[in-house]
Amino acid sequence: MRKSSTRSDSRKEDFLDLAEELFAYLGYQNTSVDRLISGLGVSKGAFYHHFKSKSDLLDAALERMLLRAEAQLEEVLAAKAPALEKLQKFVVALDSATKQNRRSSLQIGEFLLQDANAMLLVRHRRAARDRFVPVLTTIIEQGVGEGDFHLDNPQLVARVVWEIGEAMEEALARPLILATDKPIEPNEFLSIYNTYVRAIERVIGAPEGSLSLVDEIMIQSWIESVSNNIARTDRIDSRTTVLPMFPGREKS
């Protein structure tokens, strides 16, 4: 029974691994169940054994991204470091969770930001909020104890900070991901980012300028990924008859 369960879990991971590759190259909407089962050489029944639908597959892919971040956040909480440093690492851990397949994250982000998928975006955000606000609460409580943060209700403030973060993410993501002519410039990105970070500092009662949640390397990494993604999308839109091979996979 254990071996059977292990094989089943492994097959599910295979589906998720290939799905991330296909999402990265084709986008969610152009990734079909038929393409997935063809890529793995399995039956359609094998897919539906693990996932109810393609939407269920997307939920599982998003959940796996959250799990990647959660594992790193456990290390952040366990570290002996001041709260300001932990808050910095909190953001880095969330970014790192998408770094493993940044193109896939961009394609999924573009899909979720479409108006027709508003409910899916809300569901994903709720799942992330429920998972990570308690971690943020612990960091803020530590900051209050250390005298760096000045506030009365750490749990409520953590929720507010998370919601500011969601608003910041969308304010940055829309010009970044949905750019059609040219990607957002680093100085424009920083201007948006700094406005939201200053708001977070005020909410947690930290000195102005004390928070630095991203660095130039992180910003440039995202902008370059978007540029590459736009170029790749253009190649797909003007495709002839054959799609290039998916990274790391041989044609069957």
Describe the protein's architecture and organization:
The protein is an all-alpha fold. 74% of the residues lie in helices and 0% in strands. The protein contains ten helices and no strands. It has helices spanning 2-26, 33-40, 44-50, 54-78, 83-99, 102-112, 118-146, 154-177, 186-204, 216-237. The model is unreliable at 231-252 (pLDDT under 50).
**CATH top-level class:** Mainly Alpha
What is the tally of beta strands?
Answer: 0
CATH architecture: Orthogonal Bundle
Range of helix content? over 70%
User: What is the typical, i.e. mean, pLDDT?
Assistant: 79
CATH topology: the name is Tetracycline Repressor, domain 2
Unreliable runs, pLDDT <50, ≥5 residues?
A: 231-252
In N-to-C order, the SSE pattern is HHHHHHHHHH
Radius of gyration: 20 Å
CA-to-CA gap between the ends? 31 Å
Superfamily (CATH H level) name? Tetracycline Repressor, domain 2
Number of separate domains: 1
Task: Note the beta-strand portion.
Answer: under 5%
Global shape? globular
Number of helices: 10
Largest sheet: none
User: Structural class of the helix and strand makeup?
Assistant: mainly alpha
